[in-house]
Amino acid sequence: MATDRPPLSALRERLHEVVFESDTLAGKVFDVTLIVLILASVLAVMLDSVGSIRAQYSSVLVTLEWSLTAIFTLEYLLRVYCVRRRLGYITSFFGVVDLLSILPAYLSLLVDGAHTVVLLRGVRLLRVFRVMKLGHYLGEADDLLLALRASRPKITVFLLTVMTIASIVGALMYLIEGEASGFDSIPAGVYWAIVTMTTVGYGDISPETASGRMLASVLMLLGYGIIAIPTGVVTSEIVRAGVDKARQKVSTQACPGCSAQGHDVDAVHCKFCGEQL
Length: 277
Fold this sequence. Notes:
The protein is mostly helical. The protein folds into 2 domains: 10-133, Four Helix Bundle (Hemerythrin (Met), subunit A), CATH 1.20.120.350; 141-245, Helix Hairpins, CATH 1.10.287.70. It has 10 helices and no strands. The protein is flat, with a radius of gyration of 26 Å. The N and C termini lie close together (12 Å).
């Protein structure tokens, strides 16, 4: 639906093109610089968790972190300023991630240890797709999300079946092995069954009797077949989504109203908020 609001001002339109898109040299430089700063911030937080490094370079790391926090705060405010529908951006996925990337630093002034949550900035590396002009990769991510949603009923039934098998086998192992082998409860047996079916095999609990080992062998073989089921279900949905997408072309332009992407190349208005593109 079209909107009666006037177009963005020249300054906001230019900033929007630089901040949200990568079709221009300035946009590419902005996104590449942002990614480098994100990596530097995540690395600084990781290094700060190492005691010997923190003891020697504490002041440097603190200065670096607060400098980067100031930059990310300015960048977040620019994004809010550029879009017309500010609430739509603030509540969007990347809007929430952008906010979470700066809040922990300020919360660290009140809550000790909150700064480690700054590692959430790593999620923002998803913006690298716009830098490389691989907009269709963002579309592939949408296809994957749609495939997961379409597979939800089948995956739900599959998980219920797996939990049923784990519960039955766990109860049997509790009866067969007992506390002497570490199966001191049915939940412990269910835990062992899940670890065995997923082929993780921690080895903290293992059957010792012949009957228990036979049941474990059957469960191990069953585990290989179980792992393949969700893969096949999701893969079929991804293929179906890819076929549907091949019939249409998608633009990399970001909406000036809500910053959403994924519009048709001939679209005049945003299919999410109705703003004129």
